[in-house]
Amino acid sequence: MTHEFNLDTYVDSIAAQVKHYPKEPMYYLRINQLNCIYEVLVNGEIVTGNYSLMQYASATEINRAILKSGPQTITYRLYPVGDLVKDEIGEGETITTLLNSTEISIDVIRVDDINTYESITDDEKLVVKHQSKKNKETGSFIGAGLPYYEHTFTFNAQVPYELEGWTNGIDLRKLDQKKLEQAVVAEYKKIQKLYEAKDVVTLLDNYYHSFVRLAVSEYKGKQYIKEMVEEIYKPILIDNKDFQPIRDYKFSIWSQGHYVSLEHPVFPIKDKRIQGKPSFWFLFKNSNGRLRAMFRPIDLSIPKDKHKEGEFNFEFAR
Hints:
- The structure is a single chain.
- The protein has about 325 residues and is α+β, with helices and mostly antiparallel strands.
- It folds into 2 domains: about 170 residues, no CATH class; about 130 residues, no CATH class.
- Helices cover about 25% and strands about 25% of the residues.
- The protein is built from 6 helices and 15 strands.
- The strands form 5 sheets. A 4-stranded antiparallel sheet has the order 4-1-6-7.
- Strand 12 and strand 13 form a beta hairpin.
- The chain starts with 6 loop residues before the first helix and ends with a strand.
- The model has no long low-confidence stretch (mean pLDDT about 90).
């Protein structure tokens, strides 16, 4: 069906929905952590994660998780470092709980206009500075001794656009969770068949609303949109994809209950190569004949206007 798909027409359709404004604000997170690995969610959507001991120098854009102006939530999930220290220095114990010295700091940054963004000093404005809490008596991390710690705080954003996004979906938390999980696994297998058949038309139609949300929230032009689409489009055309079994997954509902996905657990760590990555993945040989892995995030929602009792009429959320 690939002959029916016109990439330029598809890109033009997305670009036509992007509006531009006198000022185009962007929001970022700058994160520093100690003695933990983490995931950070904005409005319930995972925007970044760090499963190593390294510190990320660059900030993370988060506009894609902001649908409109007003209060926004940031949630961070902290996990123990496991064998990371032992792997780095060649000795030590497996760490299975968060330590007294564990901490994380998150700066929420606003740039008033991404088009004139030149200098961190001049253009970035600190919206909120959050520091993980410590025990008042001991001075140690409040979650020390736990295998997992989660905390949520808020900030206010002002953006010139408004998107429907996940708010069009039903609250999946209210459904029978066992039946929902079984339906998600079955949907993943249907999507796998579309990938195997290289059904570009159906798959790109499913991804369309996600592309629009990304392009609108980040004020993107045609060239960026085309590159974004090609990141999904090109893997569909890979020959001899060897899909891996969907197993040992974490069943996750997020974005205030509107999205559902399957991914490999962050902790405990069974295989660092797939840690925290989507459960939808395949192996393939690249142009040099080397075996490579490709992970595709598949997040599903059920639109309110498609919901029928006892049925699971999924749409791609991303």
